[in-house]
Amino acid sequence: MTRDEIRELAAFQVDESKGACALSFYLQPDPPQDRSHRREAIVAKDVVKQALKSAAASGKSGSLHADLDRVLELATSVRGNGRGRAVFACSAQKFWREYELPPHLGGTHIYLQSRFQLKPLAALLGAQPGLCVAVVDRQRARFFDLRLDDLRERGAIVHMLSRNGSSYGFNGYDAGHAERRVAGEALQHFKAVSERLRTDLEKGIWERVIVGCQDANWSEFESNLHPYVKERVIGRFSADVASVSNEEIRERAGAVLERWIRERGRTKASEALDLAKSNGRGVTGLRRVLQALEAGEVQSIFLSENYAAPAVECPHCGHLDAHLVPSCVACGNATRELSDVCDAIIPIAIRRDIELFYLKEDAELDRAGNIAALLRFRSDQRTGQVAVAS
Ligand SMILES: [Zn+2]
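Above are the sequence and the zinc ion SMILES. Below is the predicted complex in structure-token form.
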């Protein structure tokens, strides 16, 4: 799933005047040990049938029925490959998108709302950088893009090493010389790989990199990385280029990434909370986060895992208010109630490339009102010294 595809979902507008409805369906796969029972398909069918019933009861339009039928068909035919799935549909506006996702969706659910439900996606995607996975040894390198569990090979470099002297076996050939030559070739190869990483980074092809290589090669490879590239390495896993499968690369790099996002979320959240106390580039609590969001100040948002709060939204100007006021304070039009303000925050964050972190059991964030933000700047402090995000 690409960033543009996610943005498309976040930007999708439902024409409610025509009775259209945005359907979002998430299918949580069975854990590996249960895959033979096809429990996931049974649960999915139940969820869809339940939605069909309640749609019929509420007299929703026929187009929704068509979407639900199609989702039911998908749920019935799903083959347990351990991957999660998501469908976003609105047949009244001829929209249907289907994706495979990582297997951590927090349950099989269907949502019929006025916009696509992106929370399970946001929780996965959160602060995912454009990620490159480079799998390297002394003569080969393969480059992949990893986005939401979708691994795509982008290119490779091969510099086959000369066979070393002993296996050549012709007289007078200095084995030491041959070894040095092979070492020199490996060095040239590492330099070429490093150069490729640097130019791809400069072209904006990736933002962070995970390296897969054998432990014995890591220190030599690392010492040849350009400093810009080195500071963007978020982790490493042990792999042999010749034998590692794409599935293994996806799983191991995915685990490194998950750990990195979790740690980064904690560090940045605690930074935001500290800065909020010193009246700097941090805010806490829904009211202040919404204000900062509206002022375009937000760089990252931190949410407790199960955070939800009511709010009102102005359908006219888009203003969000933590106070449940009947008319918009910005433009005076009638507001509508949102049962969960996250339904409005998440698409905004996705459209504006704001990092979104969901934090599990973070006592400090819980005490601060379960929501906080790190700011790029504070507009009320822009006269004189401007505090700019590093
Ligand atoms: Zn308004």
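Residues 383-390 have pLDDT under 50 and may be disordered.
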